[in-house]
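Q: Entry one of two.
A:
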Amino acid sequence: MKVFCLGAAGRISRESALDLVQYSDFEKITIGDYNVEEAQKVAQWLNDDRVDVVKIDVTKVDEAAEMMKGYDVVMDGTQITLNGLSTECIAKAGCHGVNLNGFGEENKWDGLFKEAGKACVPGFGMTPGTTQMMAMHLANQLDTVEEVYVSHGAFRPFAFSKSITETTTYEYDPNLESRVVFEDGKFIQVPPFARPRKIDLPQPYGETTQYIIPHSETVTLAQALKDKGVRLIEVRGTWPQQNMTLVRGLYDYGILKNPVVKVGDTEKGLMSIIGDYLVESQEGKTTKLYGYALHVEVVGYKDGVKKQGILYHTHPASDGSVEGWEGLRAYTRNVGIPLAIAAEQLAKGQVKGTGILIPEDAFEPEQIFKELERRGIYMHESWNSL
């Protein structure tokens, strides 16, 4: 088997490549990135004979697709704004594909994947991805489902990379149409900081106030659970408190609208300027607490009794007590590992169906959990009668 690791020079998907080196059966692991110098550094870090490096530019679609041909799967770690192009390349190459974001730009290539007999799963990291597995694990134990609450705490710096800064800006764009909740059969658009809810995350994170975010779980779970009668789906998230304070201030002052300002002889979006500063600043690149915390709650009925299921996850600490999970890597490994697991399952033919697939239709939750446990990432489940 061969895997093409697109964008694996990045801070997150290099962790996916490491996971493939450590756990997968791939015989060839190619790192394809526009930044070939950084990709070479990653290859040296991985230190495995199966790893090689190529320079690729997904804006040159036909050329990029030709480079991907012959690989069993493309593991796409590119940023949100490139996912439409990167998915086009994968579809035209005739490979299976999976990426981290899943914001919908991939859907237009469904027909090409079906023609090739291949599957593409947009959005499979921690969230979206693992969160859908958690929700389905709970929902599958109920006869009917009424409410689903997906929450996460992503404890990482505001701007440890340009793509992460882009994600932050995207999710709190005041005009973003995809920031929705699912309620009584309809998707309802909400503004940033809508519907605050206190979520009790495991230590060392504790209680956090979380707000609605524009993640794909809202849409995919509505599709997956329609036969169970689901009437409410809300997806929330938070970052470290200093990040949330900054984003709130940027929102309140209208800066997240990215108004164009003139600096000297150059015109540029104000939020873009702030993002450029944060990427280079100590404040933008560090935070006090690192890691990830997923929390999913499903409410429904089993044998006529109303039940509440809660599932949350834990991972090795970021304090240096577990090698390889120090500091920021406690965050980046959490995101990168599920992507690698999904890529191998696709390559091995363990995903049924072709075309663009939602995670709920592509993977078995318990199989994903089993693989996560091998890496020291655990699920914790509890049930209450209401």
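Q: Entry two of two.
A:
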Amino acid sequence: MSGNELTRRSFVKMGMAGLAGGALTAMGGCAAQPQTQSQSQSQAAEGADGRSDLPTDQVGTDVASAESIARPVADDIDIEAPSQEIRYDIVDSHLHYVDFLEKSDGFPALVRAQDMSGVSQSVIFGMGIAKQWDEHTPKAPSYYLSNDSRCYYYLGTDFILAEELLAQPASTRERFFPFICGINGNDRFAADHIEQLLRLYPNFWCGIGEIMSRHDDLTALTYGEPPHLDHPAFLDVFDLGAQEGLPVLVHHNITAQSCEDVLYLDELEAALQHNRDCNIIWAHVGISRRVEIQGLTQIADGLLERNPNCYIDISWVVYDYYMQDNFPNDYRDGNTMDDWVALIEKHPDRLMIGTDKVGHWATYPAEVVKYYELLDKLQPETAAKLAKENILALVKRW
């Protein structure tokens, strides 16, 4: 390699090894010219098994082919069958391809799980925060709450997702809408990093997120200052989303754990007001584990009324806790399923559903069909919007 020459494959390898930041610094922030869409498509078509035959690095030695670095096909994963007959066509609006260790069961198993669940398409993104395995911890963590070791922002997650999705057959690639998530919301370079990825993978990205703002134990365990949505770095990202027409999905808790006072809603309001041309999707209605608050439907209603660029995804524990009243400590939030139905019918174009599965698909069908109770209570046209039409109206192939 000479001068500032660096192929995309070199960059991806270095990024996965934790060296991408140093490579970009050495390059003065410049990246090599990306392949065109037609080149990427022709290479993907050349592989007998549908995987791309990407070029070798120009460093004097050949590197592994796409087949040897792609994630092993996980055909042996036992995916649990859904508990009821499939009755809805659903687009999963919230799905992580990898877990907090950047591991995944892979796309073939995911497609199989979605076919079993009636999920025809899906938004998908990596995991922008990775869990560290400390030197003196004898057992590797499997989740961010496995132990008290720190977490860190991991930009390589976007390259993992991009390279593995591009290595799939066209029929698989076409059913996913990839989002960029591997950024630090406290870093004023965050928007620049997103722009680099947009250039490196043209006609590929469809949105930004899930970006972590206030996220209870996760952001408390992560190196650096706690992020917040009205930080200048976040505002730059919202400006970029508006400029490129890309929705931005954010995780931003409405309050702290074990606190019933609304603490952080004003930060979300400031983000929404900063640039009305940026469509912001509020993940989980601001809820995480042990986040317990009264009158969430009323809060969400007011937020949607005041902010036409606000959208809400119903995913993860918010459905189990707040809609089905299955809080682990028998907490009562004051709302019923009928209150949520009324909210959705009042704002039929503004909410969507997602599984929030994290890299592993054995129980994926159960996370999909659990929403049938809610969908059955809605008007048919509203159910179709919640299940698929609202998220499809937001995503854009950049």
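A: Comment on entry two: The two ends are 30 Å apart (CA to CA). Strands lie at 90-92, 119-124, 129-131, 151-153, 176-180, 207-212, 248-251, 280-283, 310-314, 351-353.
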